[in-house]
Amino acid sequence: MTTRNLTAVEGLRFLLFLGIFAFHCVSSWLPIGWVGVQAFLVIGSFFLTRKYVAQDSPIIKVSQVFFRRIKRLYPIYLTIVLFFTLAYLMYSGELKTDVFWYIFSAQNFRCLFENASHSLDSFLGHFWYIGLDVWLFLIWVLILRFVSKKHLKTAFTIALLIGILWRTLFIIFVPENISIAYMIPIGMMDSWTLGGLVALNVKEQGENSRLMWTEIIVGLLGVVLLTVYNAYLHGCSLEESYQLYRTASGYMHNPITGQTYFFVALFFAGMLRYCTDTKIKHPILSAAPLVALGGMTYELYCFHLPVRYAAKHFIHNDVLMVIVALIATYVVTVLWNKLAMPIVQKIIR
Description:
Elements: H1 3-25, H2 35-53, H3 62-92, H4 98-103, H5 121-124, H6 128-146, H7 152-173, H8 179-183, H9 189-205, H10 209-234, H11 238-243, H12 260-276, H13 288-294, H14 297-314, H15 318-348
Helix pairs in contact: 1-2, 1-13, 1-14, 2-9, 2-12, 3-6, 7-9, 9-12, 10-12, 14-15
């Protein structure tokens, strides 16, 4: 797999970030912009699995590999969490228990408790993705530790089905707290393991254009059909049904439409094959500006919601607010990478 083809993935990552950014800034512009979360899970699992199967690794040390991931994710994450915790403390004079949920990446599990507070979510709500990544990664490492390479495909397939089954059961039996269906990491296991299955398939069979287009078409068609079906359930137009993607309650109320996550992940599994196919050129996705920005996607993602909150507080024109917030997010990210990150890395070492 050439470097040229991997750069296309970076370009895709930045476009996915823009979708999430637009969704958080003005959700009506791109109601389904949250699909970037599923795509990031697919991409992350793909590269991690690809790296693992490419080498004759000894038995994985779970704690060592897990904490290496924490060291990758936590410096910027924890800095932002502690900054807004201290800011809230100085403003309100009280320390909110939210911070402890975030420190241990357990914020997603608050949906299990009725009295869990959410006062920091205006600044940190997007970190539910970190709550997914951390614990899905741990599950992934445990699978690699206890399942041989020749049985990985079976294990990943079972894990994928568990994710779908989890969502289905909670949509049916716990509709009053539907957050459990998708906030708990198991509910996103199909998105994560799809990336691993793509990596295993590419390792065994090489590039497969037929499978790539099958995944893209089936994934896209699935989302379209579920949008049509949701319009039927709500008795509304297709445009109104599309706008229902702005909130999970708009499509997670039904066990069929609740599988939107799977079809989104399947589509991006196909897109991942497209981006890494050495027979295909990607002049747009591999363009230098997109690749450079894609390389800092994680940092952009971490900073964008607090910056958007500040911009929205002072600027009431949506277009101007989005432009200012996007530029400010980029500037803050560059400053972090240039000034703060070297200091943080020295502390970690």
